[in-house]
Structure formats: structure tokens, C-alpha cells
Amino acid sequence: MLYIHIGLHKTGSTFLQFCLDANRRRLARHGYVYPYIADDRYYRFQHVVLARAIAAGDIEFPAQIVRDGFAAAGNVILSAERLAPISARHENTLARWLDLCRQGGRGVKAIVYLRRQDLYAQSLYRHAVRAPETRLTLTFQDFLAQRRPRLDYWTMLQPWYRLVGPGNLVVRPYEPGQWQGNDLLADFLHAIGLADAKRLKVPRSPANRSYNARMVELLRLTNPSRDKAAQQRFLKLVETALPEDWVFETRGERSSYLSPEEQRSFMAAYEKTNALIASHWLGRADGILFREPLDEVDRRPDLSAGAIRALQDRLARSSIDVQLAHAG
């Protein structure tokens, strides 16, 4: 069987990929291959290079990776969160690739983790503002306006449902309370038919902590002054010079760009399609996909000009010069 973990972004994909990479030999003893792509040293722990090749129309190279995997074991695991979003534009190419992968009677299953839309959008936004490759300058509301149609998971999953067929698309909510043993790795292993997580080691992967909303807002306002290399240097400098609570979201707490009323209104737009997913892929008569409750208290941070100026002053005392610009 070919198991394809298609994402999404910001749903623990990097953690799972580090675990799979660190346990290649243990997985092989259970009859599972997690392919190593020697020509892609930077992304050796995942398979984004395969997604890029497929998007470029090259299906032979990704198919050969799968064939080589099957030559070594009965099951092959691929993981690349970019496979989910490219399906809408490259469904025919993906179909031709999967036809090659199925040669010899092999089956294909796709696994996807879905995060509650309001939380997912906010996580994507923080990343897009922070990431050196994007350095977003849009406000959250403008970003949300652009993203709303792409947060309809029912529509997004249709190409993959057509590609792998009934019974072969595994949909899992990205909520710890809904995972096997409240553990993401155990949940994923259960999804691929390998329920014994005790024999797999969990490596110390690079931390992927979220910046707090105030630091994200400062970045948004100053991003026009930095290119990719300058952003990389600036992030390293900030994380080194400032206390953690000035940079990162407090552990165990979660701020929000949306008020409780805005959360409810935002999630109401996806209520019907989320219910379809819960019924169709999870067999839930109640139609509930996400079980974590929406906020009852207002968690919006202070992003006023005064608050941002205070952060700028704190940076200046650490000898970090940053000039505010008009953005968004």
C-alpha cells in the first residue's frame, strides 16, 4: 500500500516527518519504507521535492521513488503538505502519477489532517508574515478575505477523493482530544495500519513555536524594509536578544485576532461543509468535525500604535534598530 500524507500546513506535518525520518530502520522492520531522496538534502526528512516535480509535470521521477520503495517493502509512506493544495490545479497530473504508482496492483491511501478554520487561518497568517520567503504585509482581515474560499475543506478534498476513490481518503481532525491516545504520532501510525508507536522514537526536532501577535504586527509593519536574507538575520537577532515572552506566544495560551462573536460568525460559514466531512469521512451522525469549543472570552491582543511602539523601544534598548513603515 502507498500511504500519502498530504498535509495540511500547520497541522504537525513537520513533527510527523521528523519522526518518520528518524525511524526509517524501525519502520522497515515493520514492512514500511519512508523514502530518502538523496538529491534533496535540505528537505531530506520530507518529500516536498516530489510535489514540486508533479506540479511541474514530471511524474516519472516521483513514480520511480515509489517503485524503489515497493522493491524494498510492501508499504511506502510519502509526506508532503504541498500535495493537498496543488490537487485543484494538477489533478490530471496527479492521476497519471498515481496510475504509475498502482502498477502491480498496489493500493493508494491519502491521509490529511484538518485544523479548525479560524485557528488554521491565524496560524497561516502568522507564518506568512514571519517567513523570509513571503514577508507578508497584509492585515489579518485582508489576508482572511483572500483565504476564505480556500478554507472550504469539503471543496479542497474533492480532487483527492476522486484520485484515491471511496474508502481511501483518511480524514483526521487536528485536535489532540480526537487523536489516538491524545498523541499525533500514534494517531498517524494508526491511520497507516501501524498502531505500535511504542517502538518508535520521538526525536528532538527543531522548535516551531509561534510568534505572538504583537511581534507579528511589528514584523508586518517593517517587512517592506527587509529582503529574504535580512529577514533571516532579523529573526535570529530578535530571538537571541529578547526574552521569550516578548517574541513567542505564551506556552499553553492562545491569543486570537477574532472576538468570540467574530469566531462564531466565521465558523458558521463552514458549518454545513464541515458537517458533510464529519458524516462522509468520519461516519458521525452528529455532523461535528471539530469538538474544541470556541472562545467565550475575548483573547484579542493589544495591537495599538502605543503597544507596537513599546516593542520597538524594547528592541532599541537591545541595540536592534527597526523603523516602522506604512503597510497593509
Automatic annotation (TrEMBL):
Source organism, top-level taxon: Bacteria
Annotated InterPro entries: P-loop_NTPase
Protein name, as recorded: Sulfotransferase family protein
Protein's organism: Tepidamorphus gemmatus
